[in-house]
Please model this.
Amino acid sequence: EQDFLTGGDDNIFGETKESCLAAIDKVLERIENPLAAVTEERAAYLQQEKEFYTVLASKIRE
Model:
C-alpha cells in the first residue's frame, strides 16, 4: 500500500540513529500536544504509546 504523503516511503524512522530519534521525538511531541480533545480511553492508550516510545528512545541512545 502506497502512502502518498511519503511518496511510498513508509520508513518514517529513517536509516540512522539520529533520524530514528528525531522521528520518536516528533511522535512524543504529537502525543503531548494532541490536535483534538482526548477521551479518557484514548488518554490511556496515548500514555502506553508514550511509555513505549520513551523506552525505545532510551534503548537507541545506549
User: Anything to note?
Assistant: Residues 24 and 53 are 6 Å apart (CA to CA). The two ends are 34 Å apart (CA to CA). The chain has one domain: 17-61.
